[in-house]
Amino acid sequence: MLIFRNSHFAHIESKVLIYHIFSVIILSVSLLLFLFFNHTENHFLASIACIFAHGIYSLTFLELWTLAQISYSKDIILAARDQQLNRQGIVYLVKVGDKKRKARLQALLSSGLVDCKKGNWFLTRRGRFLASFLNFILWLVSFKSVG
Amino acid sequence: MWIIYVFLALALSILLHSIIVRYYSSISRLTSFLVIGCAVCALLAIVVSAKYGLISFQLLASLLTYAFFSELYIFLFSSALTSISMNLLVKLRNKSMNTEEIEKVYDGRLMVEKRIIRLQTTGLLETTKDGGFLPTKRGLQLISFLEYLEKLFKNTINV
């Protein structure tokens, strides 16, 4: 990822995610080939450990990338640090929030999770499945207020 | 067999966390899960090492599998709370909305206010005498770390 950081590729969330998924697939296929020739229990367990270690690295990377690149809370702390979190500062942040909401709606539309017909936004089948799963997670952790 | 222990441990940590956050609703979801997750992880390590030995591939594989799924769970619930995309999905689950309705229920001002409250609760922002906000020492440390990461990732994104 450090090699790709100068390219446009490393600045789009979905492409960073695809890069990591691709990397896990390459690792898994390589380990499967390795296991084909060395199929002992310890080799199998070591391969599982490698795949999940890569998973931990990828997940940590994506979390840090999101936090550093597109986090709204980061923008708010930055505005506070630059002593701009007053009335005008909040107006600016509200505009940023509106812009983010529009961009995310478009991203959900292009990923096929939501659809829009005659100005009406609704979930697709895939979107409904994901939304139900997220709702279950929110129920598990008993979140009363999100946003 | 070790994988069964891993999934039992995961189920136990999620269940315990779910019960505890219902009893102590003001508790930090992240901190409480980290504490419960680490305690259950220690229990998992004891059980697996008792069965397969302290220096075994089963122990290594089970700890890494457990750590991965725990991190995934933390990622999911923190995203469900703060991610704009995931929030929009959850809000659209209840009913379909037109653009104006979405703007009303997911208003920019409300988004800022909720985040300011959350940042105050987590000790990253504090209120000044004139009603403004300033980052705390922890908030400044976090920003320095994020700015370092931004340089590492070469930020070019505005949205």
Give descriptors for this structure.
heterodimer; A: 147 residues; mainly alpha; 2 domains; two-stranded antiparallel ribbon; 5 helices; 71% helix; 5% strand; B: 159 residues; two-stranded antiparallel sheet; 3 strands; extended
Question: Summed up, what is this model?
Answer:
By secondary structure, chain A is mainly α. Chain A has helices spanning 13-37, 41-70, 72-81, 87-110, 125-140, and strands at 114-117, 120-123. In chain A, strands 1-2 form a two-stranded antiparallel sheet.
Structural summary, described in words:
The complex is a heterodimer of chains A (147) and B (159). Chain A has 147 residues and is mainly alpha-helical. Chain A folds into two domains: 4-70; 72-140, no CATH class. Chain A contains five helices and two strands; from the N terminus they run ααααββα. Chain A has helices spanning 13-37, 41-70, 72-81, 87-110, 125-140, and strands spanning 114-117, 120-123. Chain A has a two-stranded antiparallel sheet. Chain B has 159 residues and is mainly alpha-helical. Chain B has two domains: 2-84; 107-159, no CATH class. Chain B has helices at residues 2-23, 29-52, 57-82, 84-94, 99-105, 108-121, 137-153; strands spanning 97-98, 125-127, 133-135. Chain B has a two-stranded antiparallel sheet with strand order 2-3. In chain B, helix 1 (2-23) packs parallel to helix 3. The longest helix of chain B is centred in the middle third of the chain and has 26 residues, at 57-82. Chain B is extended, with a radius of gyration of 20 Å. Chain B starts with a helix and ends in a 6-residue tail after the last helix. The mean pLDDT of chain B is 89. The interface between A and B is large, with 76 and 70 residues. Strand 2 of chain A pairs antiparallel with strand 1 of chain B.
Shape of chain A: extended
The overall pLDDT of chain B, averaged over residues, is 89
User: How many DSSP-defined strands of chain A?
Assistant: 2
Instruction: Please give the domain count of chain B.
Output: 2
- Which overall shape of chain B is indicated by the principal axes computed on the Cα atoms? extended
Per DSSP, the total helix count of chain B is 7
The largest sheet of chain B has its strands arranged as 2-3
Secondary-structure element sequence of chain B?
A: HHHHEHHEEH
Mean pLDDT of chain A: 84
Number of strands of chain B: 3
Unreliable stretches of chain A, pLDDT < 50, 5 or more residues?
Answer: none
Helical content band of chain A: over 70%
What proportion of the residues of chain B is helical, as a percent range?
A: over 70%
Number of domains of chain A: 2
Largest beta-sheet characterization of chain B: 2 strands, antiparallel
- The percent range for strand residues of chain A is 5-15%
Radius of gyration of chain B, in Å, reads 20 Å
| Major sheet strand order of chain A | 1-2
Largest sheet of chain A, in brief, is: 2 strands, antiparallel
First-last Cα distance of chain B? 46 Å
